[in-house]
Each structure stands twice: as C-alpha cells, then as structure tokens.
Amino acid sequence: MPGLLLGDVFPDFEAETTTGKIKLHEFLGDSWGILFSHPRDYTPVCTTELGRAARLSSEFSKRGVKMIALSVDCLEDHHGWSKDIVAYNCEESACCSLPFPIIADGKRELAVALGMLDPDEKDKDGMPLTARCVFIIGPDKKLKLSVLYPATTGRNFDEILRVVDSLQLTAGKRVATPVDWKSGECVMVPPSMSEEEAASLFPAGVYSKDLPSGKKYLRYTPHPGAQRESTDAEHSVVYSKLTLCPNALKF
Ligand code: BEZ
Fold it and tell me: Could you tell me which residues come within 8 angstroms of residue 75 by beta carbon, excluding any fewer than 6 positions away?
C-alpha cells in the first residue's frame, strides 16, 4: 500500500506540540514546511540532529520554511529534552529556546498514518519507534519531497537545505538541478524543452556537452536568478562562471 505520494495534499492533522495545539495547515500558513520525525527524546543521534536543525533554523526561515519536529514521546519529555538540545548547541544553556515546536505523538497516531515507524527499533514495551522521516510541504500544502532514514542513521540538515533550494527554484522555473548542485551554480535544461524554447527562455546562454551518442541532452544554463541577456563584454564573465558546467559549449 503506497503511503503519501509526491503531489498529495498533506493531511491537515491536529496535534499537541511544545508550543500548544496546532492544525498543520494553519500552522504553515503560506509558508513552505518541513516536518521531521526522530525516534526518541534523550538519545544521542537525535540530540545532534535537532541541535543542527535548530542552528540552521534562520536559514530555513530565510527560505520561508516553517519547521516542526515529531516523536512518540510526551510533551513533558519534549520540554525537558529541548533544554538539553539548547545546551548541546551553546555553552550558556540559558541563551535561547528551541526555534521550532515538537509534536507529541504518544499514541503513534500520526506516526502510523504518515508511515513514519521504524519496525527495527522498538521501545522497552516492544513498540516501534519513529524513524527519521523528512516531509517537505509546499505553500500549496502538497508533498514536495519525502525521505525516510532508519533510526541508526542521522540525517544531514545541510543537504535538506540544499534540497529546499532546488525545490523552490524548480517550483518557479523550468529547470532541473544536477548532482551535488548548490544554489548559484548552473542548472540543467529539462529534456522535454526544444532548443528554440531553451534559447528564448535562457538569454544568458545554453551550453551542451558533446557526448558519444551525439545527442545534445546534457544542457546547462546559468542559475536563472542570474539570467539576462549578456552583452559581449559580460559574456566572458558569464562564461567564466560556467566552469561549473564542465566541458560545456554554447550551441
Ligand atoms: C539515537 O538517537 O541515538 C538513536 C535512537 C534510536 C536508535 C538508535 C540511535
């Protein structure tokens, strides 16, 4: 049975959190959202993960992304553990509070409904714990990305930010981002776009790599945020930035 699929409207659940009761869609408003689960409060990997998520919270808010965490622990544990996470992040533990709420899903209702459980990790009563799930939800409340890590593998929140940059860029522009792409680097022209359309949509130039097949499908263009018709004088600057598009030639 498939769970939530990309493009599905994310369930508008109600939940108890460390900042009070929320309804997800109302909580998100017009923002993007990231809902991320962890197995258990007061555990080492989870502490490092939520600490990193807290340190990156200003980067998420710069991108208009509201964060919310979830585990099967109770509110009292969430509140107590939040202080440990803050202390893990800073020397003076009184310096700040956790910048996002944590959902208390003690009855595992959301964990089951959203397919977040890790069957290999159980609590002392033999009940499965939440895995390390990440859902990214768009301003239209639709699911844009989901990843599920087992309890024993901590996530990379820099990678999640990188993914947000790609999701937000490709939501508004007809481009795709290549392997290891970072914001500002060249993007790829989708295979369905004709050469004529690409030339008119990307005035800064489209560059393709010659391949043994002779097919020109490996097409790069500068980051669309930097797209405008380049003058001859600027062209060399644009071209030098295209070192990120290896062996690419303008056609
Ligand atoms: C941890 O957060 O350290 C952890 C939690 C559950 C299983 C393994 C590790």
Answer: 16, 17, 18, 104
